[in-house]
Amino acid sequence: MGIRSLVLRMLLLATGATLLTSMPAAWAAEQSKPQNKLELIANHDDRRMEALGEEIRHQLITLPYYSVFDWLQAEVKPDGTVTLKGQVTRPSLKADAESRVKNIEAASRVVDNIEVLPLSPMDDQIRIAEYRAIFSYNSPLFRYATQSVPPIHIIVKNGNVTLKGVVATQSDSDLANITANQVSGVFSVKNELQVEGRTDERISQR
């Protein structure tokens, strides 16, 4: 079983249910019995991993110094191995994230691949300028700034900006991208914002 992302999708076996209803009642009743132990184990693993993923997400987003300029995400394996990824502005945040996840009972092993962004006065200036531009009070994106940690995260490294997180509409994603590109001193902008409800959406811990 491969690496599962932090947000785990439950698969609905609708096709199987349809087939059962079209077959003789006695045969269908027999087949509906929990005979396939491997399937039961897999379903149990899915529920266990989903619960672990939700606990990891809760622990990460409640870190005291986690901000709009940081990004944390995790991948969970069936054996309970958790791989932490992302970028943070403080070394202490990297250590705190690893410590929080290690204290989760269901996490059997924690691999900390979180990157600590380099110290840079220029990057700090870009962070502030990007924040003010994207979350300007007269912008449609201002509503995202009212949350304790806005869902649009601004990651800056050596003058390059990456937008991460989740927005409500494609137009919000496009507007954030256009606005980020207009900030002076930025070398490049990479828009990785996801749109809510998309089938290809990958959550992240935000």
Describe the structure.
This protein is of the alpha/beta class. It folds into 2 domains: 4-116; 121-195, 2-Layer Sandwich (Histidine-containing Protein, Chain: A), CATH 3.30.1340.30. It has 6 helices and 9 strands, in the order βαααββαββαββαββ. The chain has helices spanning 14-21, 25-31, 37-61, 91-102, 121-134, 170-181; strands spanning 4-5, 71-76, 81-88, 109-112, 115-116, 152-157, 160-167, 188-191, 194-195. The strands form 2 sheets. Strands 1, 2, 3, 4 and 5 form a 5-stranded mixed beta sheet that branches. Strands 6, 7, 8 and 9 form a 4-stranded mixed beta sheet that branches. The protein is globular and about 45 Å long. The protein starts with a strand and ends in an 11-residue tail after the last strand. 26% of the residues are buried. The model is unreliable at 1-35 and 199-206 (pLDDT under 50).
